[in-house]
Design brief:
The protein is of the alpha/beta class. The chain contains 13 helices and 12 strands.
Length: about 350
């Protein structure tokens, strides 16, 4: 038998014929739906669904000079850490962007150059906008993009410029660590130690403020109970050993799951069991937190909601005329497991 000749994909003309409208009406339904009456738009959309019609995005891009691509720079995960937060965020961002008609273009750059990759993409007009995730104090990305009038949304507050006008979405780290500390206080712990990042980390200091706020609210001292270190498992291990010897805490709250993993190592070396002898809480609710015995209690960032808010802000920036959304600060939750 001769092979079956595949049918040609449906065209704009096919949609127009089925819906009983002009080709221009179908084009408006795809590109400018606000121009159509609701009943006409519904009829065209039903025809598009029925035929499985896919608009010629390449041709539309030539007319509008839009790529429908969002640029996101990704960095290599640091060795010796348990942090996979960005993996979950990127996945959520890709899914949410696709539903909004955009795709995410991932690019890398030299670790020592925070601007690497951005200029090439701007010169080639390869992307419509950027999502910036490195908002630490002193990072030049936001100012550089603003100086070139490049649309972008930041995942993270503008720590260096609180009055910055660009849209951003962030998670309230102070509220998360207050929640974690209060969880331990409610279980009778009074000597709760903090292991966080260096003082020049605004994110780390923000999270630390939640721990100290919760302790002060119960009239409990914090002197001698805090340590600032690099975000590695070995640093958490060393800091917790010193605190156990010198401060005798009954619980730890950590700025990351990475540091909390270091605490778990120290407890294991001393024959202590997390959750029975010493309570431990981390931050980020990584996959490691979910599988390490006895399960690490951890502050969970609502990254799926972060991604949705970022895409909403991007849609506003790319609208005609553009609208700039105000900063959005989201509340985290606490995933309670055996370690606390």
């Amino acid at each position: 038998m001769p092979g079956r000749v595949p049918s040609a994909p449906p065209t704009l003309a096919d949609v127009a014929e089925l819906a009983g409208v002009s080709r221009q009406t179908v084009s408006n339904a795809v590109n400018n739906p606000d121009l159509l009456r609701s009943d006409t738009l519904l009829r065209v959309q039903e025809a598009i669904t029925s035929l499985g019609y896919l608009p010629n995005r390449a041709a539309r891009n030539l007319r509008t000079r839009a790529s429908h691509l969002i640029g996101l720079r990704i960095m290599t995960v640091q060795e010796g850490t348990a942090n996979a937060t960005m993996d979950r965020f990127v996945h959520s961002l890709v899914e949410t962007s696709r539903e909004a008609g955009y795709h995410v273009l991932l690019f890398s750059g030299e670790p020592a150059d925070p601007l690497a990759g951005y200029d090439d993409l701007l010169r080639s007009t390869a992307v419509d906008a950027f999502v910036v995730t490195d908002t630490y104090l002193g990072n030049p990305q936001a100012a550089w993009l603003q100086s070139r009038r490049a649309p972008f949304v930041a995942f993270g507050r503008p720590w260096a410029d609180p009055e910055a006008a660009h849209p951003w979405v962030d998670v309230d780290g102070a509220a998360g660590c207050d929640l974690a500390t209060s969880h331990l206080l409610d279980r009778g712990h009074e000597r709760i130690a903090w292991i966080g990042w260096r003082k020049d980390s605004f994110i780390g200091e923000d999270r630390r403020s939640g721990w100290s706020r919760a302790m002060r609210s119960r009239g409990l001292p914090t002197t001698g109970l805090a340590s600032r270190v690099e975000d590695t498992v070995s640093s958490g291990r060393e800091a917790s050993a010193v605190l156990l010897d010198e401060a005798r805490p009954s619980a730890f709250v950590c700025a990351s799951d990475t540091l909390a993993m270091g605490v778990l190592h120290t407890l294991s070396e001393r024959g202590l069991l997390a959750g029975r002898d010493i309570a431990v809480v981390g931050f980020d609710d990584s996959q490691v937190a979910q599988v390490v015995p006895p399960g690490l209690t951890s502050v969970r960032q609502p990254l799926e909601v972060v991604a949705a808010e970022v895409v909403t802000a991007l849609e506003g920036l790319l609208a005609h005329p553009p609208t700039i959304h105000r900063g959005v600060l989201l509340e985290p939750t606490l995933a309670v497991r055996g370690s606390s």
